[in-house]
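2024-03-11 09:14:02 DEBUG pipeline.ingest accepted 1 chain
2024-03-11 09:14:02 DEBUG pipeline.ingest length=610
2024-03-11 09:14:03 DEBUG pipeline.predict start
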Amino acid sequence: MNFFEQQDRARKQTRLLVIAFMLAVVAIVVAMNLIALVVFGDGSSPQAWLSPSFWLANGPTLLATTVVTSGIIGLASLYRSLQLRGGGSTVARELGGVEVNGTTSDPLRRRLLNVVEEMAIASGVPVPEVFVLEHEDGINAFAAGWSPADAAVAVTRGTLETLSRDELQGVIAHEFSHVFNGDMRLNIRLMGVLFGILIMAVVGRKRWIQAALSRQREYLADASAVQFTRSPDGIAGALKKIGALAQGSRLTANTDEVGHMLFASGLSSRLFATHPPLEQRIGRIDPSFKPAQFEQVAQQLERHSQARLAEQEQAEAEREKPEQPSPGGLSLDPGAWAEAAGHSIGESIGPPGPARMLLVANLLAELPRPLQRAAHSDEWAPELLVYLLLGSDPESRENQLLIVVRMRGSESEAKVRDLVNIEPKLPARLRLPLLELAFPAMRRRPEAELVRFMELVGKLIAADNRTEVFEYALARLLNREIEDALNPPRKVPGGTAGLADRRPEISDLVAIVALHGHPNRPDAARAASAEAFSGLTGFELVEPARFSDNWAGRLDEIFQRLQSLDMPSRNKLVEILLRCVRHDGQVVSSEYELTRLVAGVLHIPLPILV
């Protein structure tokens, strides 16, 4: 089942959740009415309940009980949903989570942040905020949020101190699979409706809705983690350590509301468990597993060993330098964008496999350490984005720095100059990864500052009277990040329009991508456009040269119109673009940046290419 099918399944499960919630409310209302009849009813014996006059006499009592009970449940659910508007970070902080600062020097937290960032960039989703539940010794984790743009990933201290890097990667892959499978939005909605039921402490305390919706999704997430990491030992090892650890996966925090979101059960009770039995989960991953192995694993556990290993990993990463890619275009990896085996882009979307993870790890290792620290820093992230927007022409660059002085002050301009001195010309292949590392810090800035900063971005781009593809992509991606952070989307993206409804926009979009993929080569650009629409009818082949001067303005119009596409059409559109960009087996930076931008605007996590 691919990404788009999972999104559709998430929609259907949301409807099932609403039905289950309504049934639970009806059950609670009936129970409260029975209690009210016993306490306040005008009739002393059960036989009297069979009389129509009895129900007429007690009508006001029943009506009042129904209104009050339904009102309490509805208002409580609405109140809780409003509390959760902040997204995943709100959930993490409520459970005692402490955010992992990007500038941390702690080896275990650095390892965690590296794993999350590598997986996010390789998957094409925004880098989520990362939290550690400092007071929890059990092995557990969760991902929460309304959308990938406001997501948070949290792990317990026990997870950090007990799991190896491979096991941690398996756990994080499990949580990322919940993001791709549409579970994360469903889970946070579930928190809101469960709060209303929990208020009455009748049905909600037994958590049967959580249990019913959660168990099979855990099996799916386990299988996805194995599929994407290609390492059953990672997630199986994590689950075995849960069984071997005395604390297991239990949390000291109240997990009634969030139990369905955790990597493993947060409570010891199995009667209404939100997760399948641990032995069954391990058995599906490792058929040779025997429960007696728990004792062997327990003997091997040593808390501080992982800290020492993480320090060694960090030291080795500092010493090793990845091979430098060729200075030409970016060669297309057959597996990265589902070019091999006839897979669709929908089937390739998900937590990445080892090849993509290794690619991203090498790519991030190429980044100068000071620039990485600036991307992670709340104080330096805005200046880093300004640095990425600086032109190569000295006169244009000085004009841009004057704009920075006017809008952000001389201290900000001095920071930008410091970054330029560190790396005067950053290779094009490193710009998008560095930009994505900076997004979490930018999302934390005050709203008024973000609005002002977007105005600065516009002025910097216009300073040299021309717009480069990366400048345009940075501005639009940053704008999307800010909008999603300030107003997280509450529903699965997608409208009702099909490709046939947006033929002019799609034809122009393909022409623009082909134009930037083959600058000064009109014949190659036309051939790429024709390849994009191979096998399709009804699409006009637009001359790419038409958009030599006005491509940015036309893209703005196109993106507005494409927001109404349904999810299957978004899938097909991305595949059309991929046929265009891989026409000649090479992907130049501008092609890559445009395609990632289209996917970002459509809220599709496009896997990274090699």
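2024-03-11 09:14:41 DEBUG pipeline.report The chain has three domains: 89-307, 367-486, 493-601.
2024-03-11 09:14:41 DEBUG pipeline.predict end
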